[in-house]
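Running co-folding for adenosine-5'-triphosphate.
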Amino acid sequence: MIELRNVSLKYGEKEILKKVSLTVKDNTIKAILGPSGVGKSTILKLMLGLIKPNSGQVIVDGTDITGMKESALYAIRRKMGMVFQGNALFDSLTISQNLGFFLRENMKLPEEEISQRVAEQIQFAGLEGYEDQLPESLSGGMRRRVAIGRAMIFKPHMILFDEPTAGLDPVSSKKILSLISSLRHNNNLGAVIVTHIIDDVFNVADSVAVLYQGEMIFDDVTEKLHESNHQFIRSILSDKILEL
Ligand SMILES: Nc1ncnc2c1ncn2[C@@H]1O[C@H](COP(=O)(O)OP(=O)(O)OP(=O)(O)O)[C@@H](O)[C@H]1O
């Protein structure tokens, strides 16, 4: 479980988050919805301990990580997989090498186990036949699936997605969303999805937190979004996609 308790954060003089509280339960999918620049990616960085709040606490599985040293944070980050907005694949490595990279470099696992885990992710992400290709020869949707496979290969129990469908066509978006849904069912995994696309929320999320002007204006099960009278929520429900 990941919790943000009364988290406030400034970049310089700019106040980004104002006393934001949020809970992501295990084995559930939580969406964080909000306009561009509101601080959604910042929340993911706080959850990974990459940045620290000015006040408030970030709790991961009952442990307060707010004041933790970098060395202790390593173990916390190992519980979480991260899929970055631009995928962050290595252009000069093949798909298999991309998938196995961190297992080789950071975990120093035996080659046999690496090959087995890579093969599992190739199958899970539907990338059979592309093992020896470079990322540039794959479609945007396939590259996103490689990035998901690479996050999954550590066997995390929570996975964080930054705009998982951004830049994808509707068919690829659908595939990515069903892959995300299948993570929970097949692997008992929780997920956080940062997005500005309302359809993503209704397609996969159990609950949604809406961030607007630094504050969490809604945090409840997804179906209740329709009951909100907040003007911003009413406008996103009618427009379906937030201003970029
Ligand atoms: N390292 C930084 N230093 C200063 N300002 C920053 C830094 N990182 C982010 N910001 C600013 O903080 C605000 C929130 O950024 P963040 O990336 O969290 O937004 P976001 O909601 O994820 O937006 P997007 O969907 O466009 O990525 C933005 O105004 C951004 O310009």
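Result summary
The chain has a mean pLDDT of 92.
The chain has two domains: 1-79+158-244, 88-155.
Job closed.
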